[in-house]
Design brief:
The chain has 397 residues and is α/β, with parallel strands linked by helices. It contains ten helices and 20 strands. The chain has helices spanning 37-50, 66-74, 84-92, 109-118, 128-140, 179-188, 210-229, 251-269, 282-285, 318-322, and strands at 5-8, 11-14, 19-20, 32-35, 54-59, 78-81, 100-102, 122-125, 145-152, 174-175, 193-199, 235-237, 275-278, 289-300, 305-309, 328-330, 339-345, 354-362, 369-372, 393-396. Strands 4, 14, 15, 16, 17, 18, 19 and 20 form an eight-stranded mixed sheet that branches. An eight-stranded parallel barrel has the order 5-6-7-8-9-11-12-13. Strands 1-2-3 form a three-stranded antiparallel sheet, with no helix packed on it. The longest helix is centred in the middle third of the chain and has 20 residues, at 210-229. The two termini are 21 Å apart. Bound molecules: pyridoxal-5'-phosphate (PLP). Pyridoxal-5'-phosphate binds at residues 59, 61-62, 80, 103, 201, 204, 239-242, 279-283.
């Protein structure tokens, strides 16, 4: 059983301090994401301990809830953002501009200009046209842009194709063969561009690290060669991507995964003259969030038993988008009931609107509640109002 979610006296309790999730039933007026800030703090500490020389820039796209962000700031992280909206949210949460790394492939003139004005820590540059645009805007405003080159080493980390970002077929980063052209732009614009880093992000949900190691081995000599010509080059940004176990949640296994990852970083970057930056998202927040949802109908057909929920792909897109697995747990322990096979589906007019198919659960009745586990990352932040359904609420404990 998931150590973040355990039954006590038949009631499901959640988080660091094992608070009963039944507390949210009395006031229930629709699906709600519940986040446990204490367990996020524990994860940050664990990652800092494993990567003692790295600075963490939390990838806000995983969960941009204001209280979650303020807690992460308090725990001593910076933040990785991909839009002006995320920059504003970071500032609102208490981050300062020097805490901000700006990633993303489509930075607009407005976004770049505002980030330059704020004097953020680093722009992770995804293409030569973007580098030229940043140079022009910095020059027009008499500023110097701190840039890091996001390099695409064409390495497969064996994750779902929709979250792989380090292959040449992906839109992210710049191919290594472009380095001569990139360097020409840097030289031509040396008054407005300061090369402060190189960066990579190979994708998300990495559960083995041979590709990650290979990418670091490829980039280290490039970094060292560039350092000879660019005296401000100090940051080696290793991106995010450390995976978690959704299906068989096992904290010990996850901690050894973290150690293995940290070992690769230490082996490959431990001896070079670099300030290591990491951009974790999922690993810090996924287990610390659950989605509480209510069964509207139990619908039996000749082939299936459907649990029709008041929440679906509009609130948690991952199953529809990546066929992702999330544990589903009844709020109250129903040990006396027979086990049945259910499709757990939402209200949206799409057949891809499901949380699970053919999932074994104790028999469930209309009006009862289910918890969708491990929904703290890429949950609310990907939610939509499709079909003009309301967004879920968010509560922190
Ligand atoms: C540039 C960048 N950094 C970091 C992350 C965070 O990845 P994860 O949540 O897998 O740690 C992402 C996620 O897509 C990303 O695009």
């Amino acid at each position: 059983m998931d150590p973040f979610l355990q039954y006590f006296d038949g009631t499901l309790c959640f988080g660091d301090k094992k608070r009963p999730l039944t507390n949210f039933v009395g006031t229930y007026s629709g699906p709600v994401y519940v986040y446990d800030l204490g367990s996020i703090g524990i994860r940050v500490k664990q990652m800092k301990r494993a990567l003692p020389t790295a600075d963490l820039y939390y990838a806000m796209k995983a969960n941009s809830n204001l209280d979650v962000l303020s807690a992460i700031k308090k725990y001593g992280c910076g933040v990785d953002v991909v839009s002006l909206g995320e920059i504003h949210r970071a500032l609102e949460a208490g981050f300062v501009p020097s805490d901000i790394v700006f990633s993303g492939v489509a930075k607009t003139e407005k976004e770049i200009s505002q980030a330059l004005d704020l004097s953020i820590h680093q722009f992770n540059i995804e293409s030569i046209p973007e580098l030229l645009r940043v140079a022009r805007l910095a020059k027009e405003n008499d500023l110097v842009a701190p840039v890091a080159l996001r390099l695409n080493p064409n390495i497969d980390i064996k994750t779902h194709p929709f979250i792989a970002t380090g292959l040449h077929e992906n839109k992210f980063g710049m191919e290594l063969s472009l380095l001569p052209q990139i360097e020409k732009v840097l030289k031509d614009n040396s008054a407005s561009l300061s090369l402060v880093g190189i960066s990579l992000h190979l994708g998300s949900q990495m559960l083995e690290f041979s590709g990650f190691r290979q990418a670091l081995q490829l980039l280290v000599p490039i970094y060292q060669r560039l350092q000879l010509s660019y005296p401000n080059l100090r940051n080696f940004d290793i991106g995010g991507g450390l995976g978690i176990y959704y299906q068989e949640m096992d904290l010990q296994k996850e901690n050894s995964l973290l150690r293995e990852y940290a070992e690769v970083v230490k082996d490959e970057l431990g001896k070079i003259n670099a300030r290591v930056q990491s951009e974790p998202g999922r690993w810090l927040v996924a287990h610390s969030g659950v989605l509480l949802t209510q069964i509207q109908y139990v619908k039996e057909t000749t082939l299936k038993s459907f649990l029709v929920m008041d929440s679906g792909m509009n609130h948690l897109l991952r199953p529809a988008l990546y066929d992702a697995y999330h544990s589903i747990i009844p709020l109250f322990h129903n040990s006396g009931r027979p086990i049945k096979l259910y499709d757990v589906v939402g209200p949206i007019c799409e057949s891809s609107d499901f949380f699970a198919k053919d999932r074994k659960l104790p028999e469930i009745r209309e009006g009862e509640f289910l918890i969708i586990a491990d929904a703290g990352a890429y949950g609310f932040s990907m939610a939509s109002q499709y079909n003009l359904q309301e967004l879920p609420k968010e509560v922190c404990i």
